[in-house]
Amino acid sequence: MNSSFSQSSNSVQTEEAIAEKSSEQWFTEQFENLLPKIQERWPDIARHTIEATKGSLDDLINVISTHSGNNSFGVKEQLEEIVHSATDTTKGLAESLEPLEKQLEDILDELNSTLRPRIEKPVRKRPLLAIGVAAGIGVLFGILLGGGRRN
Predict the structure, then answer these.
(1) What does pTM read for this prediction?
(2) What is the Cα–Cα distance from 123 to 101, expressed in whole angstroms?
(3) Quick one: which of 143, 136, 31 has its CA closest to 83?
(4) Does the N-terminal or the C-terminal CB of the chain have fewer CB atoms within 10 Å?
(5) How far is CA 68 from the centre of its chain?
């Protein structure tokens, strides 16, 4: 019974460590995008000082708390607000792109169903002519693109 409690306690600690590590990794990846908002919140701290933390959340908290005089807990809460606002913006952007993605898929499906038969029909009737036209276009592009390479 004691060992099962110890195992579940270790499991919870492991899950918390994984969540903390992944949030630290996310913060490091998004650091460049969050930098303007961080500077907006703490304008008295030089940009190069913030950049020197290289996206390390703990280092950034220490630098900001040292320069601003706030405790690290308050700084961490403010950074979490910035992160949450950034993730909300990202979610909103993703949701606004979904209808556009659907429209694009519909247009591509429509083009595939209408344009494809119109292209395939002449190619099937005269395959040698189609190959000749494609080769001619390829040669023209080759001449145009290769012409700038000569000395």
Answers:
(1) 0.39
(2) 31
(3) 31
(4) C
(5) 31
Cα separation of 128 and 35, whole Å? 59
pLDDT for 41 equals 72
CB neighbours of residue 109 within 10 Å: 10
Which is it for the CA torsion 71, 76, 81, 85, positive or negative? positive
Please tell me the distance from the alpha carbon of residue 114 to that of residue 117, in angstroms, as a whole number: 6
Burial grade of 62 (CB within 10 A; 0-12, 13-18, 19 or more):
middle
In the block, residue with structure tokens 């990846």: 29
| Number of domains forming the structure of the chain | 1
Residue 98, token pair as written in the block: 């979904």
Q: CA Rg, the chain, in Å?
A: 29
- Angle subtended at Cα 66 by Cα 61 and Cα 69, rounded to the nearest 5 degrees: 105
Model pLDDT for residues 5-63, shown as the tens digit of each residue = 444 444 445 555 555 555 667 666 666 777 777 777 776 776 777 777 776 677 777 77
Domain, as residue range, for 83 = 2-149
